[in-house]
Amino acid sequence: MTAPLLEVRGLNKIYRSGGGFLRAPREAQVVKDVGFTVGRGEVFGLVGESGSGKTTIGRMLLRLTEADSGEILFDGQDVRALGPAALRGFRRRAQMIFQDPFASLDPRVRVGDAIAAPIRLHGLRPAGSVKDRVVELLEMVGLSAAHADRHPHAFSGGQRQRVAIARALAVEPELIVCDEPVSALDLSVQAQVVNLLADLSARLGVAYVFISHDMAVVRHLASHVGVLYAGRLVETGPAAAVLGAPRHPYTRMLLAASPRPHAAGRRERAEATGEPPSPYGREPGCRFASRCPHAVAACRAAEPPLDAFADGARFAACIRAAELGPETAPAPEGAPSPAFQTRMALLRAARAEGRAASPDAPA
Ligand SMILES: Nc1ncnc2c1ncn2[C@@H]1O[C@H](COP(=O)(O)OP(=O)(O)OP(=O)(O)O)[C@@H](O)[C@H]1O
């Protein structure tokens, strides 16, 4: 059996700030025990509010930011252990597109030269056919040969993002981490670039980790979704399951807040309620408790183990158990995990407090 393209396990990142000779630095755990898998040619949507840790995870995947601990396996290869030469090889196979294409385009370099540079660097085409390849890439992203001689400032935002995509594709990558690639663009241009990315993934078989705060965009593109809250993946699975039948109350809150096409074609936006906790906070309990419609006192006392939430099936089963009584709950396969038992205890406490913990309650 071939390894998945990307396997991430137990990824952690703590930022430290301040501190001095006698004072310990303040610690912010911005990514905690994150794990997910991306198959070849698959689009994995990583969604969450601003500050939830999406960019930090994207950058750690490509070693632009070093993780503190955890595993990143790319095609079975341990990315965190790569030496400089192997890292260069990996960076040919895995690319990143940023929200601001200027971040990856030098304003003084003509876009044709910017696209040609990585082709030459990695010796991907004989010198005589690099120009033809550049034109092919420009056309692939909906531009033309005439654009090759222009500088980035001569392009609109959408066109610049197309150039950045062509440049990323120049090295024929198997994975592209797309960090909010359309969120700075006008709505109509967003749709065009999202469609282009979908089309390229289908045609070239390139996989994306697609980072976005916009559920509508993720719904359009992703085959699998991970929902990130305060650095924790709270729910993950096939997009149809996570977005069609969300189990975690945070996922429901995000979906309720995401813009939906209005009958008259307008888009409506409801706001997610409450604020995410400070990553520097050290309060005990579940990080979502202050915003959760199902929270009970016990939730504020102890943080549930992460897999209590990441494992959506068990989370739903636990909620049903709280409503119907533990004796009617479907038995989890194998021995109940500590996470399952903790969730059960929390939900029994919810029953004791007389709170309905319904999976259909509005988030
Ligand atoms: N270099 C850094 N030093 C300290 N804290 C940082 C650093 N980079 C990011 N953070 C903090 O880490 C947390 C996660 O940031 P990150 O940019 O990964 O989130 P995000 O979900 O991508 O948010 P956004 O959509 O706003 O970019 C935030 O609280 C941010 O302030």
UniProtKB/TrEMBL annotation:
- CDD domains recorded: ABC_NikE_OppD_transporters
* SUPFAM superfamilies linked to this entry: P-loop containing nucleoside triphosphate hydrolases
Q: Does the keyword DNA-binding apply?
A: no
Task: Name its cellular compartments.
Answer: Cell inner membrane
Give GO BP annotations, semicolon-separated: peptide transport; transmembrane transport
Q: Name one GO molecular function term.
A: ATP binding
Membrane topology annotation: Peripheral membrane protein
Q: Where is the ABC transporter domain?
A: 6-255
UniProt keywords (A-Z) are:
ATP-binding, Nucleotide-binding, Transport
| Gene Ontology cellular component list | plasma membrane
Chain spans, region Disordered = 259-281
The Swiss-Prot or TrEMBL record describes its family as follows: Belongs to the ABC transporter superfamily.
According to UniProt, the name of this protein is ABC transporter ATP-binding protein
Organism name = Alsobacter metallidurans
